[in-house]
Amino acid sequence: MKNLFVISMALFLFVLNHSGKAQTQEQYEHYNYLVLTKQIQQLQPIILTAEALATEDGPGFGDFQVVICGQTVNELTDKPMMKKFTDKAEQSNIQLVICGFSLEKFEVDRDELPEGLEIVENGILYSFQLQKKGYLSIEL
């Protein structure tokens, strides 16, 4: 009787342990990433990081978004400078997202922005919403 109890407990703990691992693997079937930055110059290392993660994650690589906020939005209208970033981001499946509040605060004309940039009304709120969806995030 005692042996039956010990074997039952061992079996129960084994099943419990493996069900937790399966849930963790399902939870992270795809890795989604978010970077919040206040500096355009950070785009080059961010893109390189995204490319390295895509290689490392393989088919598990999901979405990669960069939210740009703050005074640096003034630099977004420099279309020749931004073209190298937008082209590289597009090639690497990186979405560049611009904070609408920052555009308004620093009086940047949305029509002067290069193509390929998405504008959200509130970049910080948008970042929190992605974090709630499980995105791994960092602020630079």
TrEMBL record:
Entry keywords, A to Z:
Signal
Give the matching InterPro entries. DsrEFH-like
The residues forming the signal peptide are 1-24
Record's superkingdom?
Answer: Bacteria
**Protein name as it appears in the record:** Sulfur reduction protein DsrE
